[in-house]
Amino acid sequence: MRRPAVSTFNSTLPLARFRSLSTVPIPLPVSQSSPNPQKHLFQCNQRILQLGNLGRIEEARHVFDSMSQRDTVSWNSMITAYIQNNNIRDAKLLFNAFEYKNVRTWTIMLSGYAKAGLIEEAKTVFQSMPERNVVTWNAMLAGYVQNGDIKSARNLFDEMPEKNISSWNSIITGYSRSGLMREARELFDRIGERNCVSWMVMVSGYVEISQYREGWHIFVMMMNSGLMPDQATLVVGLSAIMGLNNLDLIGILRNISMKLGYEGDVVVGTAILNAYMRSGSLDNAAKFFEAMPGKSVATRTTMMAAYMQKGRIDDARHIFDEIENPNVVTWNAMIGGYAQNGMLEEAKAIFLQMPVRNAASWAAMIAGFVQNGNCKEGLKLFSELHRTGMVPSHSTFTSALFACANIGDVEIGKQIHSLTIKTRCHSNPFVGNGLISMYAKCNNIGDFSQVFSTMNVRDRVSWSSLLSGLSENNMLNDAWNIFEKMPMRDVVSWTAIISAYVPAGQAERALKLFLDMLSAGVRPKNITLTSLLSACANLGVTSLENSFMDCLYGFHVFEEMLDRDLVTWNAVLAGCAHNGLGEEATKIFKQMEEAGVLPNEISFLNVLGACSHAGLVNEGWDYFISMTQDYGMLPSIYHYTCMVDLLGRAGKLSEAEALIQNMP
Which residues pair with 559 in a beta bridge? Predict the structure, then answer.
């Protein structure tokens, strides 16, 4: 069949089966009788796109229906408008009604399915295409990446007859989002010519898994290559520095941004402000804020939130009062700040004073109640929100589900679940993850498994939530099966499966998994270390604990951790104590003090125990005396017992007896 000229597509024939979706056509001022019909056609196509971008989909459809002539661009524009507004059903109907699809038409539909999480439908479109170009291949590749199917993404990437920089960036993004930075780096090193996106994906990938030094190293490599960072890359570079807590590097990147002309850029300026705040230097942040040439409401809101985070309520309130016309984001930040500091009455007062509330306002107030342990009040406010007719945001649903999990109210949880389905929010991965966690905490195994099986989009949190739920309900075999099926594993999923084997008495298996995690290049979080060390100690598995300590130092895990808290330090000290590593324990204790982490009673108990097992009498006395003299702690009966044991083991019986006489 010979195709008609593009500009002469009959506007009525292709829509014969589609008329039910149309409204009464609205005539346009310029019609086919216009002296310049091509110009009219162009204007209509542009109008469809503009209305689609604005979310005015019915008006866009009116324009489309009113056109006496349509070309392929007209159809593609209307299909795009539907997809942009999450109307995949009508996009599909229009796509099927169009007889003269070109490669762009097919690609638009493919991308629409992928965006909606309908990856099988996207794959069907891809396989049905009469012809493909590199854009089509990239769209399918991006679909797999967006839906977390890195295995299919890699297979498709390897099959691609032609690759461009977007292809490479897409597959690297897939590995990066999955936390598989070793594979991402391997592909990154093979790219012939990199752009800012390539570098940005690598930096953000390392930042995501807390490998901030490597992220900063990649950023420096980009600068040395001669490629200057754009706005987005500068912001990602700053996120790497945030994890390093290095004020000098913040200053360097600040100077670079000024030289590149971003001195007055609100986005970069706000990122620098955040970097100072995340590094704990509120004073530097305040100085930078005062020196900023133009302070937008967003910048003021950021500084206000920083003061709130540090508990400087009056300073935050001063900035808030200075803003002439605070927007809803600023009001919401005040609610969140007060709630964060446990000042729920003040938060509620701000909430009630707001001239206009949006979904985020309700979300902030509900989250404030829930995070402060007032779950019933949070659920009460959620009920009020529902009565207003406003659709709760995804984060609001998540907070409400968290409240149900905390108080174990599965019945209200089920009602909220029904509401998520009614409002079509259940397909959101955050809401889905909240549902899984809620049912798991309430021991409704069948329900949380069903939620997972019906999720269109599953991210790492979805898999980890299911894994944690199975682990918490002692379903070890099911947990292992899920772990093996996971397309992407991060530190959360590794920790969940390791923690599942520990209470089951399978410490050997837990240690083997810990070694596998390290070999895979995944660095543990605090909870991973503490759960394993505590388990080995509680189970009395000294040989295993010794092996664990060996691999901990052999892989340089502990010294590379940037977020070591008191619990982590104490866990490692306990490991040293149980294995008689007295010298190592004293070094760890000194490092903890130098890191600015104040020891507590447990810290001293652990280091005294280590000294006892290693026979370090003088060091033991030093720590025992330091408790009171340096830290103002009174030794408990347990500390005295440790010292008596230390002296007894060393044959200092008279000293041990004297200490017993002075015990409280």
Answer: none
- Hey, CA dihedral for 226, 227, 231, 236, is it positive or negative? negative
Backbone angles phi, psi at 394, to 5 degrees: -60, -40
Mean pLDDT of the region 494-518:
77
Contact 400, 386 (CB under 8 A): no
Helices 375-388 and 359-371: angle between axes, nearest 10 degrees: 160
User: Measuring CA to CA, which residue among 428, 495, 491 is closest to residue 462?
Assistant: 428
- Under 8 Å between Cβ of 402 and 437: yes
| pLDDT tens for each residue of 145-196 | 988 888 999 999 999 999 999 999 999 999 998 888 899 999 999 998 899 9
Angle at 473 between CA 375 and CA 455, to 5 degrees: 75
What gap in Å lies between CA 192 and CA 28, rounded to an integer? 50
- List the end-to-end C-alpha distance of the chain, in Å, as a whole number: 101
Q: Which residue has the tokens 């109907």?
A: 93
Nearest CA-CA partner of 180 in 162, 217, 154: 154
635-659 burial: b if 16+ Cβ within 10 Å, else e = beeebbbbbbbbbbebeeeebbeeb
User: Which residue in 539, 523, 657, 454 sits closest to 214, CA to CA?
Assistant: 523
pLDDT tens, position by position, 261-306: 887 788 888 888 888 888 778 888 888 888 887 778 888 888 898 8
- List the chain domain ranges: 194-294, 357-456, 564-664
Six token digits for residue 87: 């109307």
Q: Calculate the CA dihedral of residues 88, 93, 95, 98 and round it to 10 degrees.
A: -160
Which pLDDT score is estimated for 404?
Answer: 93
The distance of Cα 541 from the centroid of its chain, to the nearest Å, equals 36
Q: Angle 476-485/460-472 helices, nearest 10 degrees?
A: 170
User: Which residues 6+ apart lie within 8 Å of 131 measured at CB?
Assistant: 103
Which tokens hold the place of 237?
């570079």
CA distance 99 to 9: 10
Task: Quote the CA–CA distance of 397 and 430 in Å, as a whole number.
Answer: 9
**Helices 57-66/37-53 angle, 10° precision:** 160
In angstroms and rounded to an integer, the radius of gyration of the C-alpha atoms of the chain is 30
Give one DSSP letter per residue of 510-536, joined into a string: HHHHHHHHHHTTPPP-HHHHHHHHHHH
Domains 194-294 and 564-664 share a fold: yes
Query: Whole-angstrom Cα distance, residue 139 to residue 142?
Result: 5
CB 600 within 8 A of CB 593: no
Close Cβ partners of 255 (under 8 Å, ≥ 6 residues apart)? none
Q: What pTM was estimated for this model as a whole?
A: 0.55
- Alpha-carbon gap, residue 649 to 643, rounded angstroms: 10
432 with 451: CB under 8 angstroms?
yes
Sign of CA dihedral 45, 48, 50, 53: negative
The counts of H helices and E strands in the chain are: 39, 2
> What is the rounded CA–CA span in Å between residue 178 and residue 489?
7
User: Was domain 194-294 assigned CATH 1.10.3470?
Assistant: no
Both tokens assigned to 619: 């060091």
Q: Which CATH architecture has domain 564-664?
A: Alpha Horseshoe (1.25)
Report the pLDDT value the prediction gives residue 106, as an integer from 0 to 100.
Answer: 93
pLDDT tier, 498 (very low <50, low <70, confident <90, very high otherwise)? confident
Q: Which helix (H) or strand (E) holds 281?
A: none
Q: In which region does residue 604 sit, left (phi positive, over 0), alpha (psi from -120 to 50) or beta (all else)?
A: alpha
Contact 592, 565 (CB under 8 A): no
